[in-house]
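FAQ: What does the model actually see?

It sees only this:
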Amino acid sequence: MKEENVIISKGLTKRFGGFTAVDAITFEVKKGEIFGFLGANGAGKTTAMKMLIGISNPTGGEAMVAGFDVHTQQDAIKKNIGYMSQKFALYDDLTVAENITFYGGIYGLSRKQIREKRTKLIETLGLGEIAHQLVGSLPLGWKQKLAFSVAMLHDPQIVFLDEPTGGVDPITRRQFWEMIYKAADEGTTIFVTTHYMDEAEYCHRVSIMVAGKIEALDTPKKLKEQFEVSSMNDVFLRLARNIE
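And it is asked to produce this:
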């Protein structure tokens, strides 16, 4: 059986005046895949993601996300994906339980569904004792894990994570990736941008963007073999030198 592609991009492009931020990128992402979208800051990762999640209009090319067109069906895309921004997305002045309730409503869940999801999420994350504390009082690592769980609240086909582990400690980063693995095992596609090259090792496949273009795309193992290096950081450095 052929694996289903839930993201298909063909020549997707974004220009700002005379500057091309995303330059004709072409790739596909399979259902249940953890797809790493790598590159240095300013490489065009976030701009590309904004087009894919339906909040920025492409200036060229085409893409389908969860079966919907990024040019004409942005609202349908938003209903079928989850999104976690690199800046913490929940409300500091609401409690844990209130944030879950609020976003459940945004995602169109019924009151019964919200109650059930809220109870399960709080239990799964072990937040029972602090469910009625303000989110602003939580450590960053807990905030990030909660934000990821809230992005999954409506059982989206795809979850987009933009630099999700920035600023958290190594132990929390590992715990966060365990949550990602679990979601992928259950069939959710994970599209994650990061500039931590060691995190590329956790992905099924990775693309590496340099100056708006995808310059490499394969499994971490095959990329390391291709560039004859032992780490994804070395792949990135070799690739950057070759382009220079």
